[in-house]
Amino acid sequence: RRAGRALAVAAAVLVALGGGAAAGYFGQQAIVSEPTAPDRVTVRDDLGRMSVVVPADWVGAEATDGWLPPNGDDGVVSPGLSVGTQPDWVDEPAAEGVFVGLLPGDELPPSVPQHPECDSSGVEERDETDGDESVTAYFRGCPDGVTVERLVQVTRTQLLWVQVRSADEATANQVLDGVEVYGF
Questions:
Q1: What angle do CA 159, 161, 167 make, to 5 degrees?
Q2: Integer Cα distance of 93 and 117 in angstroms
Q3: Distance from chain centroid for Cα 94
Q4: Rg of the Cα trace of the chain?
């Protein structure tokens, strides 16, 4: 229950910051992305704990040096990355991008962050496929596309948070499928 409440508070803080998961938590750091296919690249965080495959035109801005979760301990940086079509993708409604980050938590929150700028509220789908409990919500009718929120319980004390904003749902799903975590 504590982690669920903490994540709900974290979500409220992030919504207050403009709805972007990475807002205010990342420094900008250029890295070399690894080509995966002619139109895709793989971006890895600096600690080697996670990666995501994104469209090649999404690497207009990358931050891979972690983030400070609002419910974290004493300002300790957690593994995280943010990749978008432009440096301020989290603040620009027409921009596309993905945020992937680990944060402390011993259970999934009661709800995912909401996106009032979208026409539909996200219907949450809870799942335990592959042994990892998760919740995913699709927000449709957003400015210029779709926003997807996913939280996964990756260990007893760690949650994985993924936020994707894309012009279309097919690309959002490909990005969700391209998220990997290592060492758990």
A1: 160
A2: 9
A3: 17
A4: 15
